[in-house]
Amino acid sequence: WRPKAFNELVGQDHVSQVLVNALRSGRVHHAFLFTGTRGVGKTSIARILAKCLNCEAGVTDTPCGQCASCREIETGRFVDLIEVDAASRTKVDDTREILDNVQFAPTRGRYKVYLIDEVHMLSTHSFNALLKTLEEPPPHVKFLLATTDPQKLPVTVLSRCLQFNLKRIPTAQIAATLRTVLEKEGIAFEPAASRWWRRPPMGACATRSRCSIN
């Protein structure tokens, strides 16, 4: 289970409200950096933002979830959402290959969105290649960067991103959310299991969601 809209996010109101305000005002920055421990919602927020930008109903803080663009983003099939695991593509040649088509207009959507997870794993040369695009981004491109270790990012990259630090989620809130998810999915569970839910790894909700439902 993953949240599909900002109002489904758990424990990150300080981030979602800023993004909602930006979308409503029509002033959405070209680059965002989401930081925090594993499982707190970095990539979930990034995918929701990608839907907000490319929903066929228009740029919105409440994507419909029903149009082709929203459905394809949710299932990882949207051609203009380019997701990159930087941990496995660290070399400068990889980065250049990813950015080769950045100047071209989106194929389907309103914006071409680059979601780069674990961005701190990029090499120095890769960061330099990325920086050139961050300095002069095409108007149709948005960068959504996620990392568990922002200290490893160059200051030059940090200075060009709006930064959001996602908080560890209180254990009681995690347990309540998981109970709600299991009930909605019609999955039986033992009440005693809530004692295990209250021992989440580093305040992470996503990990527990996967473990509890699978």
UniProtKB/TrEMBL annotation:
Q: Which Pfam families match?
A: DNA_pol3_delta2
Where in the numbering of this chain does the AAA+ ATPase domain appear?
Answer: 28-170
A Gene Ontology biological process noted in the UniProt record is:
DNA-templated DNA replication
Q: Which GO terms describe its molecular function?
A: ATP binding; DNA-directed DNA polymerase activity; metal ion binding
Q: What is its EC number?
A: 2.7.7.7
Organism listed in the record: mine drainage metagenome
Catalytic activity of the protein: DNA(n) + a 2'-deoxyribonucleoside 5'-triphosphate = DNA(n+1) + diphosphate
Could you identify this protein by its name?
Answer: DNA-directed DNA polymerase
InterPro entries per record: AAA+_ATPase, ClpA/B, DNA_pol_III_sug/sutau_N, DNA_Rep/Repair_Clamp_Loader, P-loop_NTPase
Residue ranges annotated as transmembrane are none
**Any single GO CC term annotated in Swiss-Prot or TrEMBL for this entry:** DNA polymerase III complex
Q: Record's SUPFAM superfamilies?
A: P-loop containing nucleoside triphosphate hydrolases (SSF52540)
CDD domains attached here? AAA (cd00009)
By sequence similarity, the record places it as follows: Belongs to the DnaX/STICHEL family.
The record ties this protein, via SMART domains, to: AAA
Which keywords fit this entry according to its UniProt record? ATP-binding, DNA-directed DNA polymerase, Metal-binding, Nucleotide-binding, Nucleotidyltransferase, Transferase, Zinc
* Zinc keyword on record: yes
